[in-house]
Amino acid sequence: MNPTALNTPHIDIPALNATVDAVTQRITTRSRDSRDRYEKTVAAAMQAGTQRKGMGCANMAHAFAAMPVNDKLKLHQEVAPNVGIITAYNDMLSAHQPYERAPDIIREAARQFGATAQVAGGTPAMCDGVTQGTDSMDLSLFSRDVIAMATAVGLSHNVFDATLCLGVCDKIVPGLFMGAVQFGHLPTVFVPAGPMTSGLPNDEKAKIRQQYAQGLVGRDALLKAEDGAYHGAGTCTFYGTANSNQMLMEIMGLHLPGSSFVNPGTDLRRALTIEATARAVAMAQTPTATRITLAQVASVKNLVNAIVGLLATGGSTNHTMHLVAMARAAGVLINWDDFSDLAAVVPSLTKIYPNGSADVNHFAAAGGMGFLMRELLQTGLLHNDVATIVGHGLHRYAVEPWLDQGQLAWREIPAKSADTTVLRGVSDPFAPDGGLKVLKGNLGTAVIKTSAVKPEHRIVRAPAVVVSSQKELLDLFKNDGMARDFVAVVRFQGPRANGMPELHKLTPGLGILQDQGFKVALLTDGRMSGASGKVPAAIHVSPEALAGGPLARIQTGDLVELDGNAGTLKVLVDDATFNARPAAQPNPDDLTANAHGSGRELFANFRRFASDAESGACALF
Q1: Strand partners, 84
Q2: Which end of the chain is less congested by CB atoms within 10 angstroms, N or C?
């Protein structure tokens, strides 16, 4: 059996946008040495091939001891591809619960295609929705690096000819990519699980959260709303980091076309999982000279396409770190200047919560990824000349999957968006520039998600209220009310201080004050959720306060200006006075507390060796 043939549409591809071209060339030049080292490693692994052919009999027996007899026979003949499955399954995460039966589906499909498949290894997959505001959130960001290492451990047995990566959520997909790309000589397919069906509208959920924060409704009403929003198997339906991951994998050519946002438990979802297996097997059977490998798909051009997609959709701010770390794992050096320059020419084409009221199911129904990619390709904002798992040329992705009399097929995307309140073309964007912006000034460098912030709230000039923890600010809300203009400066939240937890629990309180007419903003060296909301938040400030960054010299009462339009972030204190101030130090008891409990003891070296946010907040590269 062969993979299903794509109905590849014809698209007129214009010359590449000059800024996209310039950024691509700049990254290529910057990355020349590191990418060359990476490609030499991949070439050596490709030449060596899998260890099965030269493996000792005892080694081989260990590798395949538990496999069915017929699968063993195929492997002993050393001609059938063996597909390694890396799975992040657990049944606590709604997005990952559908993966429980995926290995059985994949193994059976591999047999149909004349191959075999094994679960090579599993990775952890924590849920930030469960750990928000708790000590466990201090492990969240570094779990990405653990996942990368776990992925490498699984694939290190070197008995596989292709890889299938099963993961969806926040740190999981970046970690899977970072680990799998160390085995870039293998063809690799990422297999999504899909979003849960639409539940309680996101705007209604946010309203009830604010009412609870004000004491207007009780815990029962809040829990009912949360249950109504997060009600079944699949990814949470807002456009946070998990769904931004799915967009990235598709626009990079690592998902099957149109597969990112197909609901779990459907016949189409099952058909796509089978087809992903077919693609992996087919690529493994292709002669080495023409085989499409993960290293080829993890190219500078594909990574630039990923940044463009993130900007066009107003995706998760977490990817200003994750994409940097993912690229470095493949020897590609990107930075926030690249994001900033691309943001100036890439328009905002979507309105998905928190950037609007719709969820990802509405986005998919309006035209989804196929429409988005066709629009960007037709205006020269994406590289078309790239490798993907379905062949060369990104134009192959301007389609959507469907079941034609029960058989998987692809059809061309309609010419017009089915809902222009959710998805638009480049000729009529929601905004002329990207949904993320880089801020610079005498406080360092930060990022802000402008697509979720109304224009009248994008400039805030107000006195600083300086705290050293999320709890400290929440206590001020509770005891003081904070009914005034201010910029909340929450420092000592960077990767070296405490692992850079998300500070999403600050959103309801700040949102209430903004609704009451006050000018408020957040400024932090920590993170916000991938669903960063309507309050302007300058986050990921680099260098972090613990490393001597300027945040350590701000004092309560200093006038701070955050301008999301101009892209500036500064404290309005004369340079001589500001620079002469000694850097504040965190409470030693706070740092000690951050290092103990909930497993944080095990992550001391991650905190010690983590790079800054602009370098990926990574302890591995």
Answers
A1: 118, 163
A2: N
